Amino acid sequence: MRTEDVLAAIATGLWRWDNASGTVTLDSEAARLLGLPAEPVVLPEVAVRSRFHPVDWNEINGIVNLAVAEGTLAEARLRIMDVDGRVLRTVRSRSKPMENRTPDGATDYELIGTIQEIAEPQPGTTAAHTPITGDWRRSREAFLLDAGRALAEARSTAEVLRVAASLSMPGFSPDGLAVFGVAGDRLSIIGHHGHDPGDEGPFSDMPLETNYPAAEVVRTGRAIYLPTPEDYKRRFPAAWPLAQRFDRVSWAFLPLIVAGRTMGAWMAAFKHPASFSPDERSVLTTVARMLAQALQRAVVAESERELTTGLQRSMMPQLGPEIPGMRIAARYVPTGGGLQVGGDWYDMIPLPSGRFALVIGDVQGHDVRAAGLMGQLRIAVRAYASEGHRPDAVLSRASRFLAGLCSSPESDPYGDDGGQDSDFQSPRFATCLYVECDPKTGMLEVARAGHPDPAIRMADGTVLMRPTAGGLPLGIVPDTDYPTTRFALEPGETMMLCTDGLIETGGHDLDTGWARLRAVLESDAHESAYDEQVPGAGTAAAGPVAPPHLERLADLLVQAVHGPSSHHTTGPLADRREDDIAVVLLCREGADRGAGTALPHPARPVRRTVLTVAQVEPERIAGVRQQIRELLHDWADPDQVDSAVLMVSEMVTNVLTHTDGDALLVAEAVGELGARRLRVEVADGSDELPHKRQPGEMSSSGRGVLLMEMLADSWGVDPRGEGKSIWFELHEQSKTDADPEF
Description:
19 helices, about 30% helix, six-stranded antiparallel beta sheet, alpha+beta
């Protein structure tokens, strides 16, 4: 009996599909199954294609490509259609793709296989019916879409492995997974699921020449399917004892290929038998491709994070050795997204005089160039300060340095910009605040270049914005003068330096942002943590260990802008960081423990402010009035506050008008709440004493002494070695006590 007669008896035909010539050769039985006359025939590809259901044709096309890639059989179920579009029958095709080389050297393939009719179950019977399209296909597509989305959202290798372990494939789900990576000529396990800790030991580091499925997959780039333990034992006898102890019955090893390079292998192991049909292989291959892409993205993202973290750590300075009598805390929080580095910085610089300098600044922008300029400018400022220059000279030199660094190169006469981006040639500026501190006396010398003023938290919790003289931001005008402001940081007081990101983030302007920070500074929330170590919420600088309550205050300031650290996560609840943040707290310890923390005792800490108003800065009188109002923000009688502001304004104005020197103001509030005494002194270098006048109604001056007599509880003039000091005192009293009842 001929083979053709046997195949015809079981409704099985033979076909040969030559992809290069585009022809299909059918025997008589194959032609009959396709709805053609039952005789051998050679047809063009388009004539045979018209006999298949369009959906099934697309399906077999993918299966054939998969079989060509893996070197396996191509098997599919196909519906045969008549000329009217009705389904005649369902057939199963099994074929072997064979590569052929065309005369021009190109590679093509030829399919040689069988077509066999499948008996469909009759209506009303209980025979199983396996649809060609329908539920399984829809489930597979939904699974692949969900898997692709989940793998695309994974941002680290650990997240990718967790997603891979949670994938539930339609109809068959592995209970053991392992991902192998390649490093040189060695194969190691990146991660695994469904195994006990330590099980990866024998596979953690092996040469690629090892007779192990994953190693062969990496060497060849072809998947390996082992449906039974016998297949595993026959093909890999040396590795079988290692796999046998896991009690699995089917294995699939697939290459992880990205851009034509095999970066590893993926193993899926099953406790239940898996036949690895073409559909199942298609699903596994698709998942392996998505897994490879996700792992590649995760590796790149982790490398970038490692790079930016190292860059950030290298750029952020150490606060240096401990300073007797002083404590420092600092935070740096980069803007969200991108490289996680920006133009903000702070620094602590030991000076040759035995003093130290605190610097805080902000280079324009949040990009790579801003970070690079920040690093260069920080080094330049540190170098100038270490040479012993005064604060104004340090900022003048830094401005000249930045202006030269950011100056645009002259245009190339040939129109060649050297390949540089125009943004890297555009000028940038930077704000900066430089504070030189004497730790013995607490005396501060401040030079400011367009930066926000410092804030002082006094020993009793009162917060004052300390006005300081300033100049243009660095880099705008190369030769710029920066005046210096001197004031003392009293024992128990804390000074805050910050960049504008801490103030304006969240849609605030300077006024509303300061109000938000003032509420945090004036609260006592951080003092409750004095006996507890509180971890930092930002990037805390290494160096002397600050008291826990100072660290807690730094955390609270950052949280007031960004919320608690638990919100700093990925996803829809991620915080929106609009600007970099740098903040430095300098605390001068008091007799007890400093940082504005007063232990319970009868005597309340003295509230003091010292200001200098120069002859060339009469506009600062408005700042003096504001300072007095802030100093007396909790004074019982508002009318007394108005009186104090009026007298101070008059005293400072008289010094600037009638003398050639500057006015030095010292204001102190002493005593318990409700019974305090305010003493204000204004000193100048003139020996001329004030005297009482009798101004007319239209006179614009001459009422200073009269105001003192009317509004002050006491006042006077104290001659000094050079110049004099005019003073007045007010005793706090409630409004009801001051006004008699009628």
